[in-house]
Amino acid sequence: MKFWIMKNKTILFMALISLISISACNSENEKQLITTNEPGEFFYQTEQFAEYRVLRYQIPDFENLSLKEKKLLFYLYEAAHAGRDIVFDQNYQYNLLLRKTLEEILNNYKGNKNEEQFHKFTEYCKRFFASNGIHHSYTSQKLKPDFLENFFNELVLNSPNASYPVNDFENLEEYFVLIKKIIFDEQFDAVKIASGVGQDIIAESATNFYHRDLTYKQVNDFYSNRIDKNESRPVMHGLNSKLMIDKQTGSIYEEVWKYGGMYSDAISEIVKNLNLALNYTENDKQSKSIQKLIEFYKTGNLKTFDEYSIMWILDKDSKIDFVNGFIEVYDDPVGRRGAFQSMVSIRDEEASKRTEIISRNAQYFEDNLPINTAYKREKAVGTDAKAINIVTVSGDNSPAPPIGVNLPNSNWLRTEFGSKSVTITNIYDSHLEASKTSGVIDEFAFTDEEVERAKKYARTGGNLHTDMHEIIGHGSGRLKKGVADPTTSLKNYYSPLEEARADLVALYFFMDPMLIELGLVETLEVGKSQYDSYFRNGMLTQLVRIPRGGSIQQAHMQARKLISEWVIEKGRKDKCVEKIIKNGKTYFVIRDYEKVRMLFGDLLREIQRIKSEGDYKAAKDLIEKFGIKVDSELHNEVLYRWGKLNIAAYSVFINPQLIAEYKDGEIIDVKVEYPVNFLEQMLYYGKKYSFLPTIN
């Protein structure tokens, strides 16, 4: 990318912000970028803005690790953040352009930072970073600025370092018009993922996985002609590429994300740090898996990625683990392309005892699934389960990391080699600590008994739900012979359907006395608390994440709504779950937990059939009838009740920061610091880990 400073333009354009990628700071400057609290004064929530609360998490016992382990973690940490730019660009083609614009204003604005308009601009920036771009990570809608368009002119005029990317724009006026259109035009690229009835989900989505001239039919035809449905070990076609079209010839092709290809500048930094990590690996299996991941990044070959995934699955002994690559497909309208993500972790030995019990008994759960025997696995292979504490997250995993993960996503790999399933202890604990006094349960639970049960069993039930969702949920079931990979057959409905299937497995077994026998719970009251919580969330509290008049777009939220709504409808005659309105407030109260369990089983049987048989129509009918629509009257009520609690609907996290100490060019120690300011961390990342040009 070339940059050029204009000398003979008006003062407005001479003041345009710098878009130069800023090189990494040295270790001494790194320490000055972020203020940290003193040891022993750790607090979980640091601030709240708009619809977000900002949380932190700790890395237990980091100081007790060996220097070799710390060095391994440090280079994996650096590899994780080296790919941060990628997810911004994947989310939207102008995200990096806008991000660097916002960063330059925040870093260099010379005007009055105490005025209300600047505070509103700062809040907009925080929301932008919270979603890794201009579209809300849950609603998919474009963020709306509260600051005035005229004030943006003032921001630019009072931010020095005037330069712009001449290769991307004919002139400064063109650049400035585009920037303002991106921020202020509500109709311009209004939604990241279009999913409305009658919409072309490719052409009308702003996500940057596809050339903007492509249509859903063209994408569907392209892969229909490439994929052999009878292939027993299919690669995940499209996982690491952008689909392009040549305007002159009309030919469609994949632009692969690899070393020397698209995103090469960021990927080369990832590879550099993975190579450095190889010097400190724990064992031969870990070394070979990292070497294979490097090979994948260099070649872009998806068969190599499958080979890496097998090696990664089979490495069950390493205390330190990580994910780095193009993984989850939730943000692709047709569920093919993987967002860049990374997670670096350390095994939580004590909490892993719980997950290991579930893993050892995976065959019991598989055999007792309430589904067609033909769709059960004869042998529940390789379900390696553990609890972890994350050290850092990046890309699509940040700044809102999950509380559980089950990988890989390839169905044939799961069937033949199993999977790794993790529950993330320190993230769940942070959520729990920050929520203890929120008042949500008291507001939305119907009886004192329900409230008491929820508060008593929240941690046990929450962790166990995550364990079972990931280990025996995603890790269960099999496809009918000859059925294509479900990401192909079920298309855009695969992700919410798969999340619903995993949730239903967990919910079904929550009331199984076997959990007591295995020592996972002391009483089935834990299961009742999770059933109560599921309907409160699915029918009520998750609605606070939806804008007024909107619909449910996010896969996990669609899954919760589908399950809750379906069970209520099917159990209406027996009043298994009763809708009660008292003093103008709506509640959903379970009257018969065992019947609800049977209904969970009935729905699980049907969803497993849909997945196993690749029944696209049935998947579409289920999701669109039960998973998307929102009752506007109930929605308004929930928003009003939630508003009185004065708590955020979403959480974002500040990551711990690893600081390497050097002597004579060698690392002599790695220490962890805990930043307290969300925006400072985002600006720090922008300075240290910006490797991609503004438009790709």
Keywords:
696 residues, alpha+beta, three-stranded mixed sheet, 27 helices, 14 strands, 13% strand, globular
Give the SSE layout.
Blueprint: H1 11-14, H2 27-33, E1 45-49, E2 52-56, H3 67-82, H4 84-91, H5 95-108, H6 116-130, H7 149-157, H8 172-184, H9 216-226, E3 241-245, E4 252-256, H10 264-277, H11 284-299, H12 302-314, E5 320-326, E6 340-347, H13 349-360, H14 362-367, E7 383-395, E8 404-407, H15 411-417, E9 419-424, H16 425-435, H17 440-444, H18 448-473, H19 486-489, H20 494-510, H21 514-517, H22 525-539, H23 555-570, E10 577-582, E11 585-590, H24 593-613, H25 616-627, H26 632-645, E12 650-654, E13 657-663, E14 666-673, H27 678-688
Helix pairs in contact: 3-10, 10-11, 11-12, 13-18, 16-18, 18-20, 18-22, 20-23, 20-24, 22-23, 23-24, 23-25
Describe the 3D structure.
With 696 residues, the protein is of the alpha+beta class. It is 46% helix and 13% strand. A hairpin with a 2-residue loop joins strand 10 and strand 11 (585-590).
